[in-house]
Design goal:
Rossmann fold, three-stranded parallel β-sheet, elongated, binds glutamic acid, three-stranded antiparallel β-sheet, 12 strands, single chain
Length: 470
Amino acid sequence: MRLRFAPSPTGALHIGGARTALYNFLLARASGGALILRIEDTDRERSSAENIEQILDALRWLEIDYDEGPFLQSAREQRHRQALAALLESGRAYRCLATAADVKAFKERHGAQRGFRGRDDGEGAIRLRVPEQGETVVHDLIRGDTVFAHAHLDDPVIARADGSVLYNFAVAIDDLDDRVSHVVRGEDHLSNTPKQLLVIEAARELGLGGEDGPPAYAHLPLLHGPDGRKLSKRHGAASVQELRTEGLLPEAVCNYLALLGWGAGDDQTVLSREQLIARFTLERVSRNPARFDAAKLRWLNGIYIRALPAAELAARLQAFIATEQPEHAQALARHPQLLHRAAAISQEKIQTLAEFWPLAGFLFERREIDAQAAARHLDRAGRELLMRAYEALRTCEPFDERQIELALAAIIARERVKPGALYQPIRVAIAGRAVSPGIFESLAALGREQALERMKDALQTSAQQLALDG
Ligand code: GLU
């Protein structure tokens, strides 16, 4: 199979585009064929070098690599003009001055169903002449046949008056030139396909290529949000970069994207890249819209996070903080030996890399105590227990998880309190808030000196606060 991913660089790479890229990639790898990356930048106003870089960067992050390209469509201008000239010469295309208003008037005269036919004015934009008779059938590998009667198709505009070509023409010629065997893309392109097939047919008749026939087509189902409406910004992250900023792992994102409109057939959810390559088929792609569910993606990401060796998680966190949370990079750099341990004790509690710092950042930098958490857990009873803990931890030897657990258990037994009544005041004192990794692990990782200092300060400040409040 020869496949291509052909994004228009008019913005960031969106989730739908990433899924299209992934499916093409999986098919190329499974078939031992080739994936071509073609940047469709013929719309010069809306394309930019920055957008191209963003798309390449997103593909790199997802580890979707390609065998040929990236090719810029704009670099093929010569070839496009030459093919266009051949079509004009042969009468398969013509120049026409018709405006949108003329097309509308035509439809009013002949009925909306009637395909627009223009007059050959010898000047103006270039339209492809759709044959009067017959039909073009799109044999879609997912959706089956769709028949487009020629009588209903407008003669499509394929180039501007200045000879610069438009999408439906450029893409058809490029698919021929790249010897693409399978076009796999979003369903929104289904209505473009007959136009492209007609261009390919005309090009073949003129000896411009396509001897092996047109590519096969497969149109992927639309993406919806959980509310059943077309996926958009409203449903949360829309671009690959946003997913990255949220702290998702690229392998989890690829796994999730693969399942958007495709199923392994046995309800298996966690699939490695190798499994996806081995099992993905177009036949099992659904025709129905797929639902993008950000909560499910985060859940899946949590599974991937827990499966990483702690050293690997630490490395990912380091890279993530450097690029996405640079405001914490310094604090992290001051305690490099702590990261591995912090990662290990947070692993069960985070679903994304972004959740690490809010949970465990207190190990690296002291932060202010949250007022609500203090009011709730550092009341008179809480401070009483915090004082007991302070005394016990001062002499706890060695200061490790096991001994800390025993020391605290003794207090719980002696004071006849629930564990949480003791743990929460300690947690608020050392972490500044009511959530942290396990309390014994947190204390041990922080070390005796820091732990005691923070507990002492918390006792003093909360005592003052209580006095002030009367
Ligand atoms: N450049 C088109 C787009 O980004 C896709 C072209 C295609 O896959 O045929 O929507």
